[in-house]
Design brief:
single chain, mainly alpha, Heme Oxygenase, Chain A, 0% strand, disordered C terminus
Length: 231
């Protein structure tokens, strides 16, 4: 098996890794499902910005195709955070009921770092586990949840179970065209994304000190004020 075929095979492995903790998620519980939707809303809120950032990082000549691919994806991802927020509303909840978890921040902040450090192909790999998860693993989850929470509270899941059939297949086809020297970056993106997403799913529904309720800038401000006091 050559390395390109290995990366294609790893795409399916990354989906399995991302799904690891779903079996332990009691999404039938309104508050657990609400937490899942809220954390999804918190990170999806950044997706168009991540896509714009990666598109801006593409080389003018060598990565022209990738640049336009990311711009197209950006347009497709508009208002998906609102979809999750509306699902929460139909449950009688809001994202404010569920503060953004540390694991949620880790999930999207690492992606910004990888794009900055390794380039835009990191994003290609990073999205693959979620797209595969939506079209391979989550349709059964959707069918179960729509009977419990109602169709109006499951629109985000429904949309991605349908859309990501094309997205995942398209990503696998794209792997066949990616320059050889970028495949390692794609593979690294898939692996890191799947691991961090599994960590996020493990945290859903927990009530321990795993929720970071204080924004980073407030922490920094507090430290600055403390340092000024003791100087």
């Amino acid at each position: 098996m050559n390395f390109r075929d290995r990366v294609s095979k790893d795409a399916y492995t990354s989906v399995d890794v991302a799904f690891t903790n779903y079996e332990n998620l009691n999404l039938e519980d309104k508050m657990v499902y609400g937490d899942w939707l809220a954390q999804t809303h918190h990170y999806v809120h950044h997706v168009t910005r991540i896509l714009a950032f990666a598109a801006a990082k593409c080389d003018l000549y060598q990565e022209r195709e990738l640049h336009f691919r990311l711009i197209k994806a950006l347009n497709e991802e508009k208002n998906h955070d609102i979809m999750a927020a509306n699902d929460l509303k139909n449950l009688g909840l809001t994202a404010e009921h569920f503060p953004e978890r540390m694991e949620t921040r880790n999930f999207y902040q690492v992606l910004f770092y990888m794009i900055e450090t390794y380039g835009p192909y990191a994003l290609v790999g990073y999205f693959i586990p979620q797209e595969g998860l939506s079209c391979i693993k989550l349709p059964d989850v959707y069918k179960r949840l729509v009977e419990i929470h109602g169709k109006k509270s499951c629109t985000f899941l429904m949309e991605h179970c349908e859309l990501d059939i094309e997205h995942f297949g398209d990503a696998l086809s794209f792997i066949k065209t990616i320059p050889e020297n970028k495949l390692t970056i794609v593979q690294m993106g898939m692996t890191r994304s799947a691991e961090l997403y599994a960590d996020l799913m493990k945290s859903i529904g927990t009530t321990e000190d795993q929720i970071l309720t204080t924004p980073y800038w407030n922490i920094a401000k507090t430290k600055m004020e403390f340092n000024q006091t003791i100087l």
